[in-house]
Amino acid sequence: MAPAAEAAAAPPLWADLICRHLIEVESTAQGDAPARFQSSIHQRRIGDVDIAHIEAHGQCVIRTKAVLARDNREHFLLSIQRSGTGVLRQDGREALLRKGEMAFCSSKRCYELAFDASFEQTVIIFPADVVCAIRPGVEALAGLTLDVGNPLLRVLRETADRFFETAFERRGAVSKEHAAEKLCHLFAAALAESGFALDAHPMASPMMLERR
Prior knowledge:
Layout: E1 2-6, H1 10-21, E2 26-29, E3 36-46, E4 49-56, E5 59-63, H2 65-70, E6 75-83, E7 86-90, E8 93-97, E9 102-106, E10 111-115, E11 119-127, H3 128-134, E12 145-146, H4 151-164, H5 173-200, H6 206-210
Antiparallel strand pairs: 1-3, 2-5, 3-4, 4-11, 5-10, 6-9, 6-11, 7-8, 7-10, 9-12
Helix pairs in contact: 3-5, 4-5
């Protein structure tokens, strides 16, 4: 949890917390962020997959070229909006995140997550090489709002929530490995099914797909 601090000082502390526990980014307060900014991360690591629940005031989180120069590992970050509204921008695409909606991005390219007001979000971080080995080409969907009507996404969200509540640090390596593998397979399958919509509408723009 980032300690309450003056608005000018807290976002850098918060960004440092994100960098140490999730992924390296830069962060600035915006929107409804009060004079004393406070946010929190609750995280669980399951094998090679991280699940984090975030509650925060308005902010803008950016993975910049300077950050990429220091850290070029690729992960896929699936954002599940729990409350509030956010916007994910990557590759010239904008995905609006309202309560219950999902979008994902690649950490290997610049992206921005912006929230004008307080929000809650679950972020699942997957190893990109594992997901792409299961379903090659799904990285093309980065920056699009995913179809929450997809039953695989619902199962993924529910499974991730159950796993988040489970004390995997007390389990053996085999349990963690199998649990992480299940999450990766569900995510890859859900993206592959979303990709069928992209193939079915080859002339559709990202924004058209976002609103389908």
